[in-house]
Fold these 4 entries.
Entry 1:
Amino acid sequence: MREQFRSDMSEVQDDVVDIFRELLNTTKLAVNALIKGDEVVAQEIIDDDDRFDALTLEVEERVIELIATQFPVARDLRFLQSMAFIAMYQERIGDYTTTIARAARRSADKPVPQPLIDLIRAQASLVYRVMDAAREALENRDLELALKLPELDEPVDSLNKQFYRELGRLTDEDEIEAASKMVMSARALERIADYCVDTGERLAYFLTGERALLEAAEAEVEPQKII
């Protein structure tokens, strides 16, 4: 019976890791659609949002079922709670990816200043790194990597501020309209990275039992890889 429970928990973790992989791929597609003005790909991403909602809801329902039927305690209970929280973060990441796709659809065929395109590329590249690190930390239950996520997120926040400075320099109405969609997308990317940091916080809580914020956990817990 307990062997089946362990297998079920492993499947939950595998599902959450797989969702992260899909979200990373979809985020890349959304950003590319934004840069290229690809309305077709943008609409495909928008239409696919319900599937991500269903995937994350399935994880939450599986967690509830395991808690209700297996009565987990201590580390097992922390694990299941953390998977449910991370699934919720993933659902919101999916929503922000859809926000980028909607911006891509609305700004297609409108002139976008090259500096903003360069900024969105740079910011997206940093966000991909944060997303993949969150996925890897979760897959390997790597506390050290989880504790590095805030550090990886800092450059994302810095780049986001540059969008507003570039927007303030524009005077052409068409450029301002398209640029506003870029700024909206930059904000969405920033929030995606933030939810990855939240994922690291939940992972750190599962591994250590500490409820401190990730920055506090970094100071209190000596980084180490826990298998």
Note: Residues 220-227 have pLDDT under 50 and may be disordered.
Entry 2:
Amino acid sequence: MHDEKYKENMILGVVVIGTLMASIDSTIVLLAFPAITSALHSNIATIIWVIIIYMIVVAVFSTQFGRMGDIYGRSRMFNLGFVIFTIASFLCGIAPTDLSLIAFRAIQAIGGTLISSNSGAIIADTFEKHRIGKAYGYTSMSWNIGGIARYTCSAE
């Protein structure tokens, strides 16, 4: 029983962290627009695509990536999302041009979408009915904290 609860808590922790990362990253770059525009010698009309491309990828692929999780395994797709998200985040950080940054953000969004579209199903598969509401509460809280973090950072 103790090992099972430990396993559940570890899975919940990973899902919460993944959800938090995907939430924060969806719009946090808004704060860096002036710096990005200047560093990449671009303009706001081009740099706005850094956010738009992320949102388009999430909107278009959420259901498909959830279905891929049903077919190939939710944990496998979630973990693949973590890998893609992490590598693409690094590439975004070293992007030499505005267009490469937009392309890397699209790849990053694929990772974030794999994470977020499979996290709820992982919770449903892992937790017993009497504990599932609490687990969903934690993942929802992490999504909301990610959204609030953007506003907290911009206030400083």
Note: The chain has one domain: 2-155.
Entry 3:
Amino acid sequence: MRALRRRRGWTQKELGRRAKVSQQAISLIERGHGGRLSVETMRRVFAVLDARWEPSLSWRGGDLDRLMDAEHASLVGEIARRLAEAGWEVAVEVTYSEFGDRGSIDVLGARRDVLAIVVAEVKSELTVIEATLRKLDEKVRIVHGSLGRERFRFTPRSVGRLVVLPASDTARRRVDRSSDVLAVALPDRGDRVRSWLRSPGGDLAGILFVSNTNPGGVTGAGGGSKRIRSRVDKQPEHDPSTNRGHGSESPPS
């Protein structure tokens, strides 16, 4: 902050006036005591300097991102194994770039025998639902277009859009709280999802809760097509629309 303030030629008092805080608050920040101020105040002061202040969170001496990445990779590995066990050809972290749309698909599965493709968006935590749905819609549109032909050499007759979440109470509560949106955008659950994955026909739009049973994640997947032994779990899972139980899926043998 001191460097940015001096670059503008401002005193601490001038910066405080523009940010609507006291000169003492500016002094606190510049002396390394910004933790005494609110997050909102810190962001407002730095915004006056055309800068963005974002705190970083560390956990046990390391970045929390590493923990989140491990959980995400583990869920990717689990759904990839389940698809492969059900006869899908599986590719992970498939990148795309088409007419300004770019990104990557966590898990992409193909069944050549029935001309079906499934797009799985894996979330260790469901946060911004609207953004997730928009991005998933983009990925399905690209699969319908060029990506299916480029990756698997066929245009899909059936496409499944699937959000994969951990089988935790937290994830289920998040889905329940957003049921008004998710019941329309991703109405399929439980038996319907598992039945479609075993024998795809028509389109699918749903949510699948999976137990995180693969702490190591996928090794060496790197976006290539890969067949991995697993199964599509047949145990019941929570379905808010039918009040089925919260039975979590059992790990693969």
Note: The longest helix spans residues 129-152.
Entry 4:
Amino acid sequence: MLKYVILGSGFAFAAAVQPGPLMAFLLSRVSISGWRRTLPAAFAPVISDGPIAVLAVLVLDRFAGGFEPILKAAGGILLLYFAGSTLVAWRREKTGTASEPPSAPQTLFQAVAVNLVNPGPYLGWSLVLGPLTIEAWRLSYGYAITLVTSFYVTMVLSLSLIIVLFGTTSLLGLQGRRVLMLASSAALAGIGIYQLFSALD
């Protein structure tokens, strides 16, 4: 049992702290909305990974080569859109015409959308978590449940901590928040462009 707790928690922590589309999106939303409105987005993997797990285990293992470029391209376009919206929010804040930031449910929905077109969870489930879950299930369904539960509890806690830590940039004042918004817009755009180009490889 302990083995699957360690495996699930370790993989989740490694996945949560890696730079990527979801991390860049969370940084963007914290800079715009603050950590309290962004915190529900930590649950995005729990919501999005149900269909991802089914696709990864049943479909992607056979068609990963053709499906991954489509995901990368779709994710790149979505990230460029969010980069643009973050840049617009930065410009409005700079000119003193900032609009109402996205609500917590809107941010959660957008985070789920980012995760659904992010190849990372699909690859993670098809290459690591899927095989581990199948292995654990063959030994005991309790082991499989422990593995998956450990993974998502650690994932949500890790993302929540990251969001709160990002939120402490508010201590830097308005100027610090503007710098963070500009940096997160650039990060979203950079990852989006990278995903579009890597989809063509």
Note: Residues 44-95 form the longest helix (52 residues).
